[in-house]
Amino acid sequence: MSQKGRIFVLSAPSGTGKSTVGERVRQRLPRLAYSVSVTTRKPRPGEEHGKDYFFVSVEDFKKRIARGEMAEYAEVYGNYYGTSALVLEELMDQGKDVFLDIEIKGAAQIRKSIKDACLIFLLPPSLEELEKRLRSRGTETEEEIKKRLDRVTLEMEQAPLYDYRVVNDDLEKAVEEVCEIIAKGSLGEGR
């Protein structure tokens, strides 16, 4: 019987580059399993159902919660995000290490239920740079940007609860640091 896999979580305040870093980490570590999150938000330009997220209705998401199918979930900026418990268990039982790109509340839920999960927090180089990144995306309204910026301070207060903190001031350096953390802590086939 193979050794059970381990979970690696990457979280960050909105606009820090979590999705970009996560995507590059997955490219560099192709044996690392990735659990695609479920969300009720609308797809951004270029995002694909089943690849970037599973885009579902609020009703469908709430049914999944009621059936106990979500390992973690949270409502963020009026949308639900979460990870399928069934998919995680299956991958880990196969001895695969699993990479999750999830928000802070979800990471706290994972920490409670999976004690040996490795949590990595991605920090922006500065609040000014974070605001610049959010504005350059061009995907949120001014009101949405303000909500995200108001929440950043609260989110960054959670950084000490993570096993590792990585500053995304240089994309390649941040990706390399996350890959090194995963390689150091890998238990299953994600090595």
Automatic annotation (TrEMBL):
The keyword Transferase applies. Its EC number is 2.7.4.8. Keywords: ATP-binding, Cytoplasm, Kinase, Nucleotide-binding, Transferase. One of its GO terms (cellular component) is cytosol. One of its GO terms (molecular function) is ATP binding. It catalyses: GMP + ATP = GDP + ADP. Residues 5-183 form the Guanylate kinase-like domain. It is found in: Cytoplasm. This is Guanylate kinase. The gene is gmk.
